[in-house]
Design goal:
The complex is a heterodimer of chains A (about 325) and B (about 290). By secondary structure, chain A is α/β, with parallel strands linked by helices. In chain A, about 40% of the residues lie in helices and about 25% in strands. By secondary structure, chain B is mostly helical. The longest helix of chain B has about 35 residues. The chains are: A alpha/beta (about 325), B mainly alpha (about 290). At the A-B interface, helix 2, helix 3 and helix 4 of A face helix 1, helix 5 and helix 6 of B.
Amino acid sequence: MTVIQTTALTKRYGSAQVPALDDLSIEVDDGVTGLVGANGAGKSTLIKILLGLLAPTSGSASVLGHDIEGSGEQIRRAVGYMPEHDCLPPDMRCIDFVVHMGRMSGLPPAPARERAADVLRHVGLAEERYRLMGGYSTGMKQRAKLAQALVHDPELVMLDEPTNGLDPAARDDMLALVQRIGHDFGIPVLVTSHLLGELERISDHVVVLDGGRLLRSEATRSFLADTGAVLIEVTGEADAQRRMGEALAARGLSCRPHGGLIEIDPLAPALPTEAGDTPEGGRGPDAGALDGEAAAAAHDRLRDLVRDTAADLDLGLVRVQARTGRLEDVFRDEVPA
Amino acid sequence: MSAQGSAGVIHDIGYRRYAGERTSRAGITRALLFSGVLAVFGFGRSGKAKVLPFALLGMTLVPAVIQVGIMSIIGLSSDLLNYSAYNAGSSFLVVLFVAAQAPVLFSRDLRSGVISLYLARPLGATAFALTRWASLVLAILAFVLTPLLVLFIGGLAAGASFWEELPRVAVALAGAVLLAMLVATVASLVASWTLRRGLAIAGSIMVLLVGLGVTAGLQEVASTEGATGLAHWAALLSPFVLVDSVQVSLGDATSQFPAPADSAATGLLLLASALALMLLGLALLVRRYRSRGA
């Protein structure tokens, strides 16, 4: 089911007319959708427009079937929003605050109390809920912010940088929680981050924004597909890596150092198959287009070559690893300028 | 039913959806209104947040209790009960209360960022700003009406005649409503523009208390110089002087200030101007909240 749809959405701020969003057309479905972009890419602007807090300069959008123009109230009733910045009054107890926010979203008093307790348990604030939020750690504050976005049982939640300021352990907890909301709770999630690696792990679909424009919108799987390239690591004398690299090059493989490893491009051109393999290897959508059997055969041949080369040079082969795509590659590939 | 069910095992029933009833827009507004009034008096906040409002409320009741006490013990006439002048007399306490508590409703939301959560909820900026203002009006009313009611009920208990006192107390009550609305507008504007609580308090005290002194002084000078028109209109500078002037000209109360409006027409005109200024203030307040949403 499509929960968010935008058509040629454009927002320009002020007299400078710099576009914060430029002709953006996206669709967001069920599950967890990551909205990725550097700071200033237009993520927060998009969320504010979707909530009806900002009017777009042109274009249209609908959230849960409600048009953003004229149905702001219905949208805000059905959506839970967790802003990026601090938004908790320090002199309130967490439970009172979440109950109050539930009331503000249209819950009657008794259900608001019941759901607030429920939701605080889900986000892991059951023990601390009677404390004033001024004394909360950053991790607890993020949880409280998430609880207020869920208290009215929204049909969609928009989370703006939920892992901001968290240490690695708390970050993992938060990401696991976001994933639970999207999958176990069954609430579609739109989550923003400027850290691509995070969204790699939890989202089903990724929308990449750059300078207000849509860079890519695809299932996360296709970003992370096997590229056919291989990373290897060898041991031996001091110059083992260099010797190995030269030997591989002598066998007609294109390779380059990659930190302490050697990255070898896929063997596709050498393959006598009918599949029209692209020489630069299939990244993103192209990877899926590769003929499965031919690709497997190519992988095997490449690995055999690596093994033989290492044996010839009398080097120890420590690691042969498939090089999968990373979301970072999206930027490396498509934003060279 | 089952054997496991009766064994007292706690099951994690997972996330539960809510399919029940949801309140209307009016219901949400009402919830916000009353939670705001309670927040002013410190309910739903930390324990020490209740100290100041209730201490001030206690202090503003002292003169009323003393007056009623004197009346019932010594048996003086009920003319002693000057309802309409009460809040001008304790204006210092009213100003302190409003200055200290308006930031609870205005600066706090804007400063802590809660405003972005409110604006992402159904009400919207305009309704939110006006409901916050209404909360402050109700809280101030509770503060200024309580001593009047103590006077009235205490007076009746001490033997005053209900029908003689009623018109006088009615004028005072109407004046209190007007005072609450005007003072709330001034304080909400100050508090929503100065995000720091201390600044908001100092600012409100400045505007309300110094405004009161300046107005009284200005009226004094203007009326000795013979500029009665200026003296009357100076009342617009201070809600307290204005309410006094309106009460005197329209409600036959006795004035506490040098130059109350001398005719009902002037009083009505003053009242209308004050209400117009109040609407202007509310428009500014709404604009402030609208700009914060973007």
